Amino acid sequence: MFAILLAISIGAVFAVQTAINAQLRKFVISPFLASMISFVVGVIFLTITILISGSPLGISLDLFLSQPIYIWLGGIGGAIALTTNILVFPKLGSVQTSIMPILGMTLMSMLIDNYGWFNSIQYSFGLNRIFGILLVLIGVFLTIAIQDKQNEQHTYQTNKKNTLNQWIWRIVGIMAGMLLAIQIAINGQLGKALHSSSHAALISFFVGTITLIIIVGIMDRSYTNIKEPIKQSAGVLLIRIF
Question: For helices 197-219 and 156-194, what crossing angle results, to 10°?
Fold first, then answer.
C-alpha cells in the first residue's frame, strides 16, 4: 500500500515539476536552459542531502570499472525526457503532458520487465498487466476525446491542422515517457550497485546536468539568460513593495 501511495505521489510531483519548468522556460526562453537549471538544482539538493546524512560523495574506481557503462548514463535519458516535456507542455496542456509520458512509461516498463532488459527482474505479461494497460489506454482516450471536443468550435481546416500537430506532440510525449522508464530501470540497477538510492539519483542528475550544459552550449551558445528568473522575480518583488 505504501509503495502505491509513493508512486502516486511521485506522479503528482512529476506533473508539478513539468508545470514549474514550463514557467521557468518563459523566463530563460530556452527549454534546454530551463532543463539545465532544473538538473543543477537537483544536484545541489541531493549533494546537501547526502552530506547531511554523513555519507561520502565519491565512489571507488574499482566499482566504477566493474559495472557496465550504461549503468552510469541514465541521466542522459532523464535530461532528454525533461526537456521534451517542457516543449510539450504549451502544446498539449498539463493533463496530456502528464498522461502521455505515463503511457510511454507503462509500455516501456512492461517491455523491460517481460524481456529482463537492463538486468532487471523478469516478469512475463499476464492478464493483470494487460488489464492495467487497457485502463491506461482508456484514460488516455478519454483525455484526448475531451480535448478534441473542446477544439470543435474552430473551423474544420484549423481543426484538421491542430489535430495533426497535437498527435505529433502526443507521440513525442509518449517517447519521453519511454525514456523515463529506461532511466528508472538503469537507476534502479545503479542504486543496487551503490547500495544507495540517493547516490544513484545524484549520479543520474549529475550526468544529466553535464549533458544539458553541453546541449545548451551547442544549441543556445549562451548561458546569460540563467540570471533572468532572479532578475525578473526581484523586479516583481520591488513593484509589489512600492
Answer: 130
CA distance 34 to 97: 17
Of the candidates 190, 210, 208, which has an alpha carbon nearest to the alpha carbon of residue 200?
A: 190
C-alpha cell recorded at residue 116: 529482463
Q: Sign of dihedral through CA atoms 203, 208, 209, 210?
A: positive
> Helices H, strands E: what count in the chain?
8, 0
What span, in angstroms and rounded, lies between the C-alpha atoms of 203 and 187? 9
Give the global pTM. 0.81
Cα–Cα nearest to 71, from 39, 114, 118, 108: 118
| pLDDT tens digit sequence for 42-91 | 999 999 999 999 888 888 888 888 999 999 999 999 999 999 988 998 88
Report residue 127: phi and psi, to 5°: -60, -40
pLDDT digits (tens, 9 = 90+) for 189-222: 999 999 999 999 999 999 999 999 999 999 998 8
* Domain boundaries defined on the chain: 11-234
